[in-house]
Amino acid sequence: MIQARTRSPEDTKNLAASLAELAHPGDLLLLVGDLGAGKTTFTQGFAAALGVSEPVTSPTFTLAREYHGRLLLHHLDVFRLDQISEVLDLGLPELLDSDGVILIEWGDVIRQALPNDYLEVALTFVDGQDTSPDERVVLLTPIGPRWQARFGTLVAAIRQWTGEPPC
Questions:
Q1: What is the pLDDT of residue 58?
Q2: Rounded to an integer, what distance in angstroms lies between the CA atom of residue 64 and that of residue 38?
Q3: Per-residue pLDDT tens digits for 61-97
Q4: How many CB atoms lie within 10 A of CB 163?
């Protein structure tokens, strides 16, 4: 697990953009966090780094959106799903076989329906007297071989947000 900290929505977007530079076709990222934690903000930064020029908004009511950039980006929001079987209605198995990258907001809700090969991005609010309401802790947990193989690259890509000295 890698712990990072962002201090503003723009900072969260920049961290996401650094991760997008590492994205490969077939990658899956689960975005986890409370309402307002920054899941869509993260996706906006990730999409911008992929060269997506259209506005990126939360797919809460449409459940899924597709954006074209350097890689095809599938952005899903499964918050409103009542049953795990509804994942099939989203065409998730087909998306997982595509050449795009998939970001799933509230991905922890459907974790058991997903392959065991993803990057979990958990965004949490920072509580404290001397913190801004825009500060977030971002925990990156690579699960499975695809992201585990890039662990060192992940650490290097987000070093400025971890408080680690540069290499």
A1: 79
A2: 18
A3: 567 788 999 999 999 888 766 555 566 566 666 767 6
A4: 9
Q: Which of these, 32, 12, 45, lies nearest to 132 by C-alpha position?
A: 12
In the 3-class helix/strand/coil scheme, how is the chain assigned residue by residue?
Answer: CEEEEECCHHHHHHHHHHHHCCCCCCCEEEEECCCCCCHHHHHHHHHHHCCCCCCCCCCCCCCEEEECCCCCEEEEECCCCCCCCHHHHCCHHHHHCCCCEEEEECHHHHHHHCCCCEEEEEEEECCCCCCCCCCEEEEEEEECHHHHCCHHHHHHHCHHHHCCCCC
Which residues in 131-160 are b (16+ Cβ under 10 Å) and which e? Answer: eeebbbbbbbebbeebbeebeeebeebbbe
* Whether 147 contacts 118, CB under 8 Å: yes
Q: Which residue has the tokens 């058991």?
A: 112
Report residue 154 as tokens. Answer: 């992940």
- Distances, alpha carbon 127 to alpha carbons 22, 36, 60, 135, in Å: 30, 14, 26, 9
Q: What pTM was computed for the model?
A: 0.88
Q: Counting every residue, how long is the chain?
A: 167
The first and second tokens of residue 91, run together, are 């065409």
